[in-house]
Amino acid sequence: MKMNPPEHWANFIKAFTKKYKDEIIFDVVRVFRTVEEIQERYDTYEFEEYISEYLPVADDSGGQVAVISKDAGNTKVYLSSYGVLQEKDFEVLDRDLMHWMQRKFPFERKQNAVSEASLERKQNENTILAQKIASFPSILQFLKEPAIIEGLALPENYTSAEHIYYFQDGYHYNSVENKDLTSDAPGEFKSDWIVLASNYFADPFFIDLNEAKDDFPVYFAYHGQGVWEPVKIAESLSTFQEILQEIQNLRFDKEALIQYFDENIDLENPLWKEVYTSIEEEEEEESIETYESIGSEVNLYITDIGPNKMKVIALLKKQFGLSGSEALELSKKPKILFSTGYKKWLEYDRKQLEDLGAIIEFETLD
């Protein structure tokens, strides 16, 4: 069957593959990096029979598997087991894949019930913080005109002024564990630091509410390092917004963008140095495929079932949910439409058919 992961998985895997290169991370976690890997586990462990509306996205090398819904509207990550694939036994691992990555892919969840009092407290905290930032025009202006810049470790996700406290999840507090994360201790996230935006890796861009008189210098820190080490990246929020808007305007003119950095940006700054290097090397990187960039869809046909007739018939039976006699009749056709999808996504189908000795061909759809 055609494998079509939801868009939030594509966004996650783009960030994941840039951040992690090893096949196994955190000693045991294997994240499935391609549609083909997902397809292989989906077929091997018979997801279609047991939980057909879910896709495997990672496992712990020990029998536990993280799954997501095929429904793009449901971004939760669920915990299941290869041995017992039953939706009724699912446990929620996290609210979404990006946040799960931010937490270093735990395969168990602390079950801390969120009380009505806790929900009410968060609503009150949001109201207080929203009212507080409403008195600072530069913050409101920054959030009103977000410059979203993909692929350069710069802001891609912005809070809204109305829901700013909820955007602090993962920095001020952990909603999964219902835990406050702020502290005045060295290396901890301070309560007066307010995250206004984040990049693909959930690295925050934030201000200190105590620095209003300086028009809020902007800070950046790498997430997941064990300690927070802020780096000042702009002297003011308005300056940062101007820089982002200029980068956005020049995003697809590499020469002009490099010239802008050479003339205007402090390249000794760790973040800006990283961004500059990314721009210089951008053409050399292997592009991450998206639904828009991977080309036309194709039909995959079997034109000759080859010497392993019974194995191919068994595959047809499984692929289309046919009876044995129906699969046998289908196998007699001179040309069998086996699957449809983007060609790269059908590599698993192609390989398993050719491994059985079948002859296949692709036809591009108009």
List keywords for this structure.
Ribosomal Protein L30, Chain: A, SMI1/KNR4-like, five-stranded antiparallel beta sheet, 34% helix, elongated, 366 residues
Structural account:
This protein has 366 residues and is of the alpha+beta class. The protein folds into 3 domains: 96 residues, SMI1/KNR4-like; 166 residues, no CATH class; 68 residues, Ribosomal Protein L30, Chain: A (2-Layer Sandwich), CATH 3.30.1390.10. Helices cover 34% and strands 19% of the residues. The longest helix is centred in the middle third of the chain and has 18 residues. About 3% of the residues have low confidence. This is SMI1/KNR4 family protein. InterPro entries: Knr4/Smi1-like_sf, Ribosomal_bL12_C/ClpS-like.
**Structure class:** alpha+beta
Biggest beta sheet summary = 5 strands, antiparallel
Oligomer: single chain
Beta content comes to 15-25%
From the spread of the alpha carbons, the general shape counts as elongated
Intertermini distance:
21 Å
Radius of gyration: 25 Å
Strands of the widest sheet, in order across it, are: 1-2-3-4-5
Number of strands: 15
Order of helices and strands: HEHHEEEEHHHEEEEEEEHHHEHHEHE
How much helix is in the residues? 25-40%
Please sum up the structure shown:
The protein is an alpha+beta fold and 366 residues long. Helices cover 34% and strands 19% of the residues.
List the helices and strands and how they pair.
Blueprint: H1 7-19, E1 30-31, H2 35-44, H3 47-50, E2 54-59, E3 64-69, E4 77-81, E5 91-94, H4 97-102, H5 116-133, H6 137-144, E6 157-158, E7 173-174, E8 179-180, E9 193-198, E10 204-208, E11 218-220, E12 231-234, H7 237-249, H8 254-264, H9 270-281, E13 297-304, H10 309-320, H11 324-331, E14 336-342, H12 347-355, E15 359-364
Helix pairs in contact: 10-11
